[in-house]
Amino acid sequence: MVKCQDVMQAMERIAPRRLAEAWDNPGLLIGSPADEVRKILVALDVREETIEQAIEDGCDLIVAHHPLIFRGLRAVRTDDATGRKIARLIRADIAVFAAHTNLDSAAGGVNDVLAERLGLVSPVSLLDGAADGEPGLGRIGELPAPLSLEDFAAFVKTHLGLSALRVVCAGGHAVRRVALCGGSGAEFIGRAAAKGADVYVTGDVKYHDAERAVGLGIHVLDAGHFATEQPIVASLAARLSSALGKAVEIVAETRSSDFFQTY
Q1: Which residue in 184, 258, 228, 235 sits closest to 63, CA to CA?
Q2: Which pTM value belongs to this model?
Q3: Could you give the CA distance from residue 241 to residue 247 in angstroms, rounded to a whole number?
Q4: 2-100+229-252 with 104-228: one CATH topology?
Q5: pLDDT tens sequence across 95-137
């Protein structure tokens, strides 16, 4: 058994809070640093099914990527989805901790795990470091050998476990230099193009984002918000297990899936 404070300190080493964007809300969102923790569930989101698994598995703490609470709450109402989840968590005595954009930027975080999954060689930050020479958001690196856009898209589908993905073709050029940003990163298409990327992999790409990419001559793969971030769950669970040792049991959430389905 450990204290919640011990987990918070381990997470600070993995994803320092100073790396978070100013608008973000990482940290302990429900519970107390003094809470005793015997079992931790690591998840992407705090969904109803996440809470269900935490209760059934006897977890004392959920460590999630996406914060359950983003902005100040004026009420906790159980006829509201967020309020209902908060009330259920408090009744079950389950604490919640989130590491969001700080985990995106951190070394070994969301974007490094995605870069590794996609086989990038020696990836570096796409954006300037978040603080004190630390990695920033996004990554850019090289594939071991050039691929056609079609073959690279097939590779991404396979390695992210996708049934489909959206492809923006910006010409006939092959793919060698790859930029990426897990989650919602369409705002960085221009930066990826400026750094010489042949293709940009992210999620939540809109119509005019695609239009801009074509104008800049950079292919885009919209692999979805969920699929580009989900790989961090197992990785973070393993890192926390290494950091905290046998004093606490750590499991990865297994019930969530992408909200979007392709028919």
Answers
A1: 235
A2: 0.95
A3: 9
A4: yes
A5: 999 999 999 999 999 999 999 999 999 999 999 765 566 788 9
